[in-house]
Every structure is written in C-alpha cells, then in structure tokens.
# Entry
Amino acid sequence: MILEKTVKGVREQVKEWKRQGLTVGLVPTMGYLHEGHQSLIKRAVEENDRVVVSDFVNPIQFGPTEDLESYPRDLDADFKLCEETGAALLFNPEVDEMYVGDFVTFVDMDGVTKELCGKSRPIHFRGVCTVVSKLFNIVTPDKAYFGQKDAQQLAVIRHMVRDLNMDIEIVGCPIIREEDGLAKSSRNTYLSAEERKAAVVLSRAIFKGQEMVKAGETDGEKVLQTMKDIISEEPLAKIDYVEMVAWDSIEVHHSVDQSVLVAMAVYIGKTRLIDNFIFEK
Ligand code: AMP
# Structure
C-alpha cells in the first residue's frame, strides 16, 4: 500500500489507475481507525478496483473550544489497518498541504446543516463540506463511503453532491458498535473506565427509542421524552440534544409519519458522543 502526503502524488496515482480503466473508491476519515472505519474500507474494497483512505484531522471543522489538539492520532496503526483491509493508498497530508496560507474558499450550506450538530457546532459542516469537496477534487472517486454514525453528515454530503452536480455515488454504511452497544468512535479513547461504563446510556436510549417506533409509536415527543429520561438517570451524562428530524430535510419533525432520524449528542464528562437511529417509512 502507498502512503502519500501530497496532493500531486495522489493525483498522479489516481490518473494512472484511471488510464488503466480501474474504478476508485474513497473513504474520508480523521484517522485513529477502528472497526467502524474498517467496515467502510471493506465495503469500498468490495465495490471498487482501488481504494483511497484519507487520514486527515481537518482543523477547520473544529470550533475554538473543541478537541482539535487532543484528537487521537496513530498513523502507523492506521497504515496497518488500511493495508490489511485491502486499501491501495493512504492519503495523510499535513495541514499546510490542504490549506495554503491564503486559503479563503469554503463550501457552505443552509437547511440540512441548521439542526442537530449544526446547531451546537456552528462552523462544523462548513469545514466538513469544504474538506470533503477538496478530497473529491483531489481523488475524483467513483464512489465515496460515509458512516451512518454521523447521520447528519451523510445527509449533508448527499445534498452537497446533488446540489453541486458532483459525479460521485455516496454510499452510506451502518453503525458499528461495541459489544455493549456503544457506537465505536475515536473519541471513546477519551473516556475513563467509569465514563466508559456510563457511555452505554446513549445506545440504551437509542435502542429503546427504536423499539418504540418499530412497535408503532408515532408520537415523537413521547419517544424523545422516554430517551431523555433514560439518559437523565445517568449522573455522568449531560444532554446536548436529543431530537427527531425528517430524514430528507433534517428539519425538526415530531411525528413518525415519514422517514425520520432520531439523533443525540451527549456529554459523558467532557467527552461529547453522538448516536442515532433512522426509521425508514
Ligand atoms: P471520522 O474519522 O470520525 O471522521 O469518521 C470517518 C468516517 O467513518 C465517517 O464517515 C464516519 O461516519 C465513519 N464512522 C466512524 N465511526 C463509525 C462507526 N462506529 N460505524 C460506522 N461508521 C463509522
């Protein structure tokens, strides 16, 4: 597997693959890879001739008080995981390779970025859309893979690709969880042993909400209240948001009369964790 640090190097390699008539899949990540990321890479390897994994902690998607500096990194372990999983190239640029000194162009969005994480993290999706657009331009993939773990991000990227006529198929992949239900996340490493135990409250609330909706409950308020009550019982947990939105528009919608996304962000101590379920109708 190739480790590439430059945009030019990625471009030359991808051009060569395309000259040979090979298809290219892209898996954008911020590194510190786990089985969640690996499931995306596996799927990409199954569906494309060559797979590029990007490993870049994107500074412009972090707010000033967020965890950019402390975000975990381990390039050697990431390289091994990508190689074992069958990726062809790991793109790990430095910040100044992606953002030259006078960088001033951003991809910004309305609508789908208004609620949920867009509300608590005002500049987040502008940073995500900008870096993903750049990665799409650098790699020019046929398909790109995103986890449902970040469901709003998946919706945002699908809208961006549609709105800007990007010729890329976006593939959404299911949430991979620990045995006790906690969604796998690079940020789980921040948790102390006690916090790790407490963190299971997120998936407990998600599973309960999902069960209610599957059993026919259509009152969003009831579902959300039950979920909030479960989280409130855990002293180490502090709710950022627990919300139900229409899956197509990501607008608040408290009735299960169409496909909905039920999403939450919860602080366990200082660590902000997210989880969700989608109910398709
Ligand atoms: P990140 O490195 O956290 O930016 O994540 C990179 C990609 O991996 C995103 O598309 C995430 O949604 C996806 N991902 C992260 N954790 C999981 C998980 N537990 N299950 C499925 N996909 C995930």
Notes: The longest strand covers residues 237-246. Residues 56 and 84 are 20 Å apart (CA to CA).
